[in-house]
């Protein structure tokens, strides 16, 4: 038995195999056919819908054009009408999952050093190294995933400008990027209960810990349980010159001890993640949210505050009610001492063609200031 999934196929009258790479957790395809520049978009789309993966041996840029043509065919299909916001959300997620599955059927080969052995292929070795680690052997990957790796690599090089920091955060592949900066501004503006110590729970890229340190908090303990996030946060804080001020700790939610300020920005939507990468967006059964609230009282110093950063998008989608959120505060022995709100500024909030436009247009992100009752 191998320690990694394998794809098997027949090519040139030979049985072949290669390592299967999928950061989304997709299983290796069971049926694979070799395809090149002669394959039409209609044929590729039909085969992909039937569950047959296409191992591309043609020109790289033609593969990209083929994927775009397949995407247009998917997007032209009529959507099932929804009778409620929650149904619209579930239909949208179902559509996105099916779209990802179909487009994920177009595969590219990677050499042992992550080079793509195709005409006009870009050099993706550094992007693959960042996501997968050291190269070992030839493998297959979906073009869709590979484009995600390339995009993440470019974001990591460019970084995201954070005005509250006077600098940039460089997100890593698989770590949530602070491209929606409105919640960061809330952290930069809320009145600090203390400048001595703060905990940043689920630090991700390290952006909140960095903002707290920039505001003068003498010592920040930033936690996460994802090795990628821990490495990403450490890299960003070092780059910003805050490595001595912020301590990075591997922990499930809280570190040991108490603090006068504890901040958490959990995933905003209580739904099941379809892939490991989606865990930054979806919080099944609100586990992280409820875990933070449930443990806050025993980790806060007397007179301290817990800052919960949460969008109300879930409420507009019918996934969680405001009453349920307030009841969770009450059950955890917490009271609200203040709240700061901000409207989103991202393009989706004004995109009327988005299936979830009504909910996105009404969305408000809040920083809830919580204290022990």
SSE layout and pairing:
Blueprint lengths: L5 E6 L2 E8 L9 E5 L5 H9 L2 E5 L3 H17 L8 H19 L2 E5 L14 H8 L6 E4 H16 L1 E3 L4 E3 L12 H8 L7 E5 L5 H8 L4 E6 L2 H13 L6 E5 L8 E6 L22 H13 E12 L1 H4 L5 H10 L2 E9 L14 H6 L2 E8 L1
Parallel strand pairs: 2-6, 3-4, 4-5, 9-10, 9-12, 10-11, 12-13
Antiparallel strand pairs: 1-2, 5-6, 7-8, 13-15, 14-15
Helix pairs in contact: 1-2, 4-5
Pfam families: MTS
GO molecular function: nucleic acid binding; protein-glutamine N-methyltransferase activity
InterPro entries: DNA_methylase_N6_adenine_CS (IPR002052), N5-glutamine_MTase (IPR050320), SAM-dependent_MTases_sf (IPR029063), Small_mtfrase_dom (IPR007848)
Helical amount = 25-40%
The total number of structural domains is 2
Class derived from helix and strand content: alpha/beta
What is the terminal separation in angstroms?
56 Å
Report the β-strand fraction as a percent range. Answer: 15-25%
What does this structure look like?
The chain has 373 residues and is an alpha/beta fold. The protein has two domains: 6-154, no CATH class; 160-372, Rossmann fold (3-Layer(aba) Sandwich). The chain is 35% helix and 24% strand. It contains twelve helices and 15 strands. It has helices at 41-49, 60-76, 85-103, 125-132, 143-158, 182-189, 207-214, 227-239, 287-299, 313-316, 322-331, 357-362, and strands at 6-11, 14-21, 31-35, 52-56, 106-110, 139-142, 160-162, 167-169, 197-201, 219-224, 246-250, 259-264, 300-311, 334-342, 365-372. Helix 1 (41-49) packs across helix 2 (60-76) and helix 4 crosses helix 5. The longest helix has 19 residues, at 85-103. Keywords: Methyltransferase, S-adenosyl-L-methionine, Transferase. One of its GO terms (molecular function) is nucleic acid binding.
């Amino acid at each position: 038995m191998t320690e990694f999934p394998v794809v098997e196929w027949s090519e040139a009258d030979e049985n072949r195999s290669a390592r299967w790479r999928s950061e989304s957790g997709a299983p290796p395809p069971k049926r694979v056919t070799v395809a090149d520049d002669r394959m039409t978009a209609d044929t590729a789309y039909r085969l992909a819908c039937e569950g047959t993966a296409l191992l591309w041996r043609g020109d790289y840029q033609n593969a990209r054009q083929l994927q775009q043509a397949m995407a247009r065919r998917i997007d032209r299909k009529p959507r099932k009408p929804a009778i409620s916001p929650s149904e619209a959300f579930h239909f949208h997620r179902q559509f996105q999952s099916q779209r990802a599955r179909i487009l994920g059927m177009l595969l590219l080969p990677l050499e042992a050093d992550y080079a793509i052995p195709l005409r006009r292929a870009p050099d993706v070795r550094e992007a693959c190294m960042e996501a997968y680690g050291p190269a070992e052997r030839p493998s297959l990957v979906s073009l869709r995933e590979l484009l995600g790796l390339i995009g993440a690599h470019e974001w990591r090089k460019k970084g995201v400008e954070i005005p509250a920091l006077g600098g940039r955060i460089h997100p890593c592949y698989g770590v949530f990027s602070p491209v929606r900066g409105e919640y960061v501004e809330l952290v930069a503006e809320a009145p600090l209960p203390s400048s001595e110590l703060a905990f940043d729970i689920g630090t991700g890229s390290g952006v909140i810990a960095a903002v707290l340190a920039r505001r003068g908090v003498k010592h920040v303990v930033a936690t996460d349980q994802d090795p990628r996030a821990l490495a990403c946060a450490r890299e960003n804080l070092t780059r910003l010159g805050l490595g001595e001020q912020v301590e990075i700790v591997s922990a499930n939610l809280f570190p040991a001890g108490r603090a006068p300020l504890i901040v958490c920005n959990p995933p905003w939507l209580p739904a099941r993640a379809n892939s490991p990468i989606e865990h930054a967006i979806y919080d099944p059964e609100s586990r992280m949210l409820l875990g933070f609230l449930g443990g806050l009282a025993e980790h806060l110093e007397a007179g301290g505050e817990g800052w919960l950063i949460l969008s109300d998008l879930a409420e507009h989608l019918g996934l969680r009610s405001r009453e349920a959120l307030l009841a969770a505060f009450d059950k955890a022995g917490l009271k609200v001492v203040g709240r700061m709100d901000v409207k989103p500024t991202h393009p989706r909030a004004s995109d009327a063609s988005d299936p979830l436009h009504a909910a996105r247009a009404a969305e408000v992100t809040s920083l809830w200031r919580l204290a022990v009752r």
